[in-house]
């Protein structure tokens, strides 16, 4: 099925005085209508350039971007401007007009598309109601908190009834609580108005929280894409693994829950498993040995004490190096790093045992638990 | 009491009037030329919204040339042009011509730097909403930069007022003219000091009013 956004073989080269920099190389991306699609990568990976290619704020050097089957590169300036009014965008630093009141900011895109001032005001008031800032209509952005500014930006983005909302690091300048509330608002908007949302971020926590699909960008290449849960439980590339690890170490919305779970699980089976800087180094050392695996619990498997049963069955202890729970696509998932006994025969059997119980199992190598 | 005859008082009052007339008219004409020039400089800059190296370079060189000629020289240099335009080369109306010409590139530079201060992110946001170049200039850049533009205008008025006094040396009219004729040629220091004080007062008034207005308009302050 052709998506609402179809990116094909997109390449972007920036030419500077001294050199040519390939910011993006051969990106293929298909985003279905109604998705919340995360694009994640380390800073400098090219994700901000990619999102700007989606509304042609940056023109791709090669390749095409189609929105609802229409090729942006074939559009005249005027058609492109018209198209852009249907693709709203919010930013890390909100980018509000500082000299205009909140309501005038929300009216701004309506003014551009030629809506009468009176009608624009009525619509702007509705939008401020939606984002919960009806009482701030006459305030100026300087009087608002970061979260409130982003809400105004979201109201402004919704003003033109867009089909697509692009979010460029929209929560990166906000604290965890505010991030949570903005993500909830975005989710609501996605569900209520069926707006396709593309989220650019470097935080795995954001992707896990609300995205249905994710693409991982590394050094200008799209290295992995798919459903968030699949990538989370079976990351294929080094870049994906690094982001999953980093996501946990970030002060994401659910880190604290995870710590508590870690202590609880760890105390039962292996004392070394708990957190701490020295322990962490030692842990990394152990993990370089081949006998470590990473497992991710699915929803069902949490009813059965799988690890304990496995230990009883094999009569052989395993070492829990790390245990955590986190929200993936809105569902709590458990994740563990286990060190298995040295006997390779037992290792193999244990892996099979876990896989048979519906757990995602893979080698822990490549997660590089050190920052 | 010999100095402060009715004629002298009237002459000084007329001097104030002429100075204000020259300064304000030149500022207005200066902005008519300088504002579009500054806008074009800002948008054709390599980081602007419509980069154009050729247009930028041409305006850049013009601005630099005019700005590097000392005002008094410029005034004398363009006497033929002034005479052609207003019919004579002395008096306050004639002085407006070189004043405008000297002020325009100065104003253009200040407008350019005010507009360059506008947050690029806000401009990008407007572009993402489908705003055209004209809308961005008119509804984003000029609005967001208004405080800076107004304080720039205050500085411009002060500078033009200073220039107008300089034009007094060649019969330009206004307070500067009086100061030169009485203070320099006739050694009537009292009159010169009074005119200088009046000039200082005028600059102070413009400065205070301009900055107050700029502060009032600025919504970035909580």
Structural features:
heterodimer, A: 371 residues, alpha/beta, 13 helices, 39% helix, 25% strand, B: 222 residues, mainly alpha, MetI-like fold
Fold-level CATH name of chain B: MetI-like fold
Helix content of chain B: over 70%
What is the β-strand count of chain A?
14
Q: At the first level of CATH, what is the class of chain B?
A: Mainly Alpha
Count all strands of chain B and give the number. Answer: 0
Shape of chain B: elongated
Helices and strands of chain A: which structural class? Answer: alpha/beta
Q: From the alpha-carbon coordinates, what is the Rg of chain A to the nearest angstrom?
A: 23 Å
Mean pLDDT of chain A: 84
Q: How are the elements arranged and paired?
A:
The complex is a heterodimer of chains A (about 375) and B (about 220).
Chain A: E1 5-15, E2 20-31, E3 36-40, H1 47-54, E4 62-67, E5 70-71, H2 77-84, E6 87-91, H3 102-112, H4 117-130, H5 146-158, E7 164-168, H6 176-193, E8 196-201, H7 204-210, E9 213-218, E10 221-227, H8 228-233, H9 238-249, H10 255-269, H11 277-287, E11 292-296, H12 306-314, E12 319-328, E13 331-339, H13 344-356, E14 360-363
Parallel strand pairs in A: 3-8, 3-9, 6-7, 7-8
Antiparallel strand pairs in A: 1-2, 1-4, 4-5, 9-10, 11-13, 11-14, 12-13
Helix pairs in contact in A: 3-4, 3-5, 4-5, 5-6, 12-13
Chain B: H1 6-44, H2 53-68, H3 71-77, H4 79-86, H5 92-116, H6 120-128, H7 133-144, H8 146-166, H9 174-185, H10 189-217
Helix pairs in contact in B: 1-2, 1-5, 1-8, 1-9, 2-5, 4-5, 5-8, 8-10, 9-10
